[in-house]
Amino acid sequence: MKNRFRDLPVHVVLIGLCLIWLLPTIGLLVTSLRPVQDINESGWWTIFSPPKGHEEYQSLCAPCHGDDGNAISAADLSDPEVVQNYRRSFSLISALERDINGSPHMGDLPVPDEYQAADIAYKLRTLSGIEKRTTFTLNNYIDALTGYRGKSTYREDCEAGTQSLDLYCDFRDLANPRGMGRAFINSLLVAIPSTFLPILFAAFAAYAFSWMEFKGRQWLFALLVGLQVVPLQMTLIPISRLYAQIGLNGTFLGIWLFHTGFGLPYAIYLMRNFLGSLPHEIFESAYLDGASHWTAFYKLAIPLSIPALASLAIFQFLWIWNDLLVALVFLGGQHPVMTYQIGNMVTSLGSGWHLLTAAAFISMALPLLVFFALQRYFVRGMLAGSVKG
Ligand code: HEC
Cα–Cα 20 to 30 A to 11, which of 24, 41, 133, 264? Predict the structure, then answer.
């Protein structure tokens, strides 16, 4: 009991920190699920307050018209045909200022001003079902995936059969080069080989550095580790020019090679430290039994270093998935990846950021999945190199 109370302040502070950390992300998530008109009109936190016009309606109109608007049968406010005449604030105000049977419409209540009237008119439209707006929708996600940039939403435009869209209105739209669906595939095409290749080569090299005797081994290893000081940004232009000469610019092969090259030093370093710390006896007895290096590599070294390989894979994958710079330089608009495409979602005038929020979450989905699937290794990976075993 005592202990629990002693930890209380720590827990409160921790929870507070997590909230501060998470709040922007939660805001992004909520925004991505709201209809575009709502996003433009109000902040995401307003989803907790009652819908627009509700309070005004309750205090000014509900006493006579009832909560659902159908208390007076001569003026049924839940009937679209009646409300159709009062869509805007001015038509509504003039109806409210008109006398009914010689006495004021509103009775003792004040006539709403134009702002209140506009909100009430909105409330009447939702009451009668003229305006069908839900609090949450997946439309932003559909629009972002298909790369839809029209005036309404992809769904509405497809149902209305608007032809000016350049879209097929079926699953083929997922391959639209301007959408996130296509970018998702491109990101996968970049990230998977760029994760797999360096780790494969690093495993070979790390094995050689730890268990094969050859001259200059230590020097070569020191050189490799030293190579990590070369900043990636410095090499962009020379490599891009080289690629231009041999025709690798804008190809997946080019970006695979680039990521492999830059992933290798660190991967080799980490793998060598891990393999080198495995007990000598295992390998020596294997060699005594006549095992070749190849057998020792794939029967001993690989199975024993699964945790290191997994954590390396997670880090490499996340780094490539979130990379914008390299993808921008070597792939650009030819094969847009997610990070590139997200930026394209907002126009220069700032509209379209309902798409941006959804696109951000689409691009976060896979890393989150990878993280939760492999989080056991993730924690171990953060300790890799610092703790043995
Ligand atoms: C004091 C009671 C009272 C209040 C308050 C009141 N109304 Fe009415 N309203 C009536 C009555 C009674 C009628 C029916 C008149 C008739 O018989 O045609 C009516 C009719 C209407 C009509 C229909 C006019 C038509 O085309 O037939 C509308 C729209 C309307 N009210 C909107 C509102 C709104 C919006 C508010 C709140 C800002 C409101 N009313 C507040 C009593 C009230």
Answer: 24
